[in-house]
Amino acid sequence: MKRNVLIVGAGGVAQVVAHKCAQNNDLFGDLHIASRTLSKCKMIIDSVNDKDAMKTPGVFEAHQVDAMDSGAVAELIRSTDATIVINVGSAFLNMTVMTACIETGAAYIDTAIHEDPAKICETPPWYANYEWKRREECEKAGVTAILGAGFDPGVVNAYAKLAADEYFDRIDEIDIIDINAGSHGQWFATNFDPEINFREFTGEVWSWQGSKWVSNKMFEIGKDWDLPVVGTQRAYMTGHDEVHSISQNLDVPNVRFWMGFGERYITVFTVLKNLGLLSEKPVVTAEGVEVVPLKVVKALLPDPASLAPEYTGKTCIGDIVKGEWQGAAREVFIYNVADHADAYAEVGSQGISYTAGVPAVAAAMLIATGEWDVKKMANIEELPPKPFLKQLDTLGLPTHIRDEKGDRLLSF
Amino acid sequence: MKRNVLIVGAGGVAQVVAHKCAQNNDLFGDLHIASRTLSKCKMIIDSVNDKDAMKTPGVFEAHQVDAMDSGAVAELIRSTDATIVINVGSAFLNMTVMTACIETGAAYIDTAIHEDPAKICETPPWYANYEWKRREECEKAGVTAILGAGFDPGVVNAYAKLAADEYFDRIDEIDIIDINAGSHGQWFATNFDPEINFREFTGEVWSWQGSKWVSNKMFEIGKDWDLPVVGTQRAYMTGHDEVHSISQNLDVPNVRFWMGFGERYITVFTVLKNLGLLSEKPVVTAEGVEVVPLKVVKALLPDPASLAPEYTGKTCIGDIVKGEWQGAAREVFIYNVADHADAYAEVGSQGISYTAGVPAVAAAMLIATGEWDVKKMANIEELPPKPFLKQLDTLGLPTHIRDEKGDRLLSF
Fold this sequence. Notes:
CATH class of the largest domain in chain A: Alpha Beta
Number of helices of chain A: 14
Shape of chain A: globular
Number of strands of chain A: 19
Oligomer: homodimer
Structural class of chain A: alpha/beta
CATH superfamily of the largest domain in chain A: Dihydrodipicolinate Reductase, domain 2
Strand order of the largest sheet of chain A: 10-11-12-7-15-16-18-19
Largest sheet of chain A: 8 strands, mixed
Helix content of chain A: 25-40%
């Protein structure tokens, strides 16, 4: 069966998704991309054509849509005959796009939890705030909805499930480490939308420890991690979607998320936050202009997409898992290393977008093959990890493991 | 002769000027204060009345005026019968207020060079850019115009002139040091209008060395200074009005200005500047709001006037002068130490406003007594320093000297 794909969003991640869908369009059918700004969609299709990325001759069309309007999205799904929707637009769109999928029967994939634009930071239990409330609705409609199918959340959830299936009898701790050891050459820039980026860190930091939610302040808990390829890197505990779903679905008592930050990021973040420049609340200038400070900061920062051509270095993202195996304590690190320049050469995006976008396409491919077409809502760790990791290997994100036997590539 | 005074401006310095004029109103006549915002003028008069500051019963009236309109200022000078105008409004008003004084014959006093709102930073030769172009006009009209009669510029110019008159046969170097060792208790705040404050430091740093202008970057040249009362303090070379006039009028080959900055200030300044948040050029947010980033920063920072009640600690500002005296090398430091809490107790302002405002009133008093009523334009170092320093002593800003004989109070 021909499965037309509709990509929602036209940022850096959407660019990666478009290229990877094109490279595998024999498995899909027609490709469509839609966002608020038609020209951005067209630029992405131009980039696909420039690289001659379509595996077989086929359709790739651009559309304008207000994805906050679920009726408009449903209409577009029908008119494009799409049966797989990959939502890589803003985090504010999940609920409206999901509604359109339930209404039309199309499969739904996203890469991050839904957020309410009016809230600075969503608090745990993250998936239970919005997505999981619609589990029954999906199941009743027979709609496949795969949540958090980026790298983190996404691939790291599959790593956790793989560890539970193959490497442990009992898991005590999962530390998810996300290090970007790359350099964009700018004095300061965020790797994705500054508004979403800063919002992640302006609230409390939540972790799952001793089977309960624990709260800390941002940059309160830092730790140096000795990692393959990128070496020793300092990362800070922060909240992240998958801490919630992994702890619940795999019943692990300690799940923490650690993100690497350089001194520059911490300094800029601290100044902006303390001065009120990360605020979502409008201020009025002496001249009477009402404006949201964070929107001004966003307007001044480099467009994350513009960083890609000069980006060098590597990312290292993975799970350090501790527990018991055949009566003995065990620790493994399951991870991927991606290269910014390689990503740019292949799909015109930097490594952060690449690692987020490729897994969503892998999920779409597994829906197309039927392996993951589960006709209900699922987080990644609820699905068989091996087909996914195998697919990722072929798509450019191989899986490595470091355990008592050393450091090696895993094949599936 | 009764000399009515018109104060232009209603910020922290105007508050000090108002109190000090009130405390000496027997020497003046009626007092008037005018700014764009009438309520701010009224609040200042209320504060004068609250402290029962008027030495003798008299008039103190508030007026609304757009001081960018010289005709409106001239009209107000005539209607108030003012013969001395103390301009302590924004640095953008000098030329229009001076025009009104020339037109009406009133004496003019300011505390800083004129700035063009469209320029980020005026470059040397500062006084020659605007003020000195009108020297002949003032002389022809017989108008006394005293430029830069704050602390720095102002009192430090008088210190330089005193050094030239009494302590040196030849001056080789003058280093003007401005240290605020006080604490406002906020995470970050500027001591005066953030817009003016940051603008001072966003351009190149100009100093007069080897009888020519030398350019450096901000925070490029820092030096620790061992100072009385406040101890060792790090200060950074920066441009300042008086470097120009002192070097020209006293023919000194090396004049440098050093301002003390804490680590916090430097960090915040560096982040804001590098991100473009100190820019005067409007940006447009993704939502289409056009706004000047610096105005947003200003709207978020604490109102400098609000800092006064909690301000503690001292300022130390003065001139380190090096040269020759009776055939031998000599070095002296002529300086004042002011206390933030004392300033607040007396006039309801912090020490930075106090040291800037009191000298302007001392100058007005010397115009009223005739000692400085020179009927032409003059910078402070062109006028006899002793009457000024004597007046400052009685007004709360005594002069100290540290030389080969030790550290002591000077009396005049």
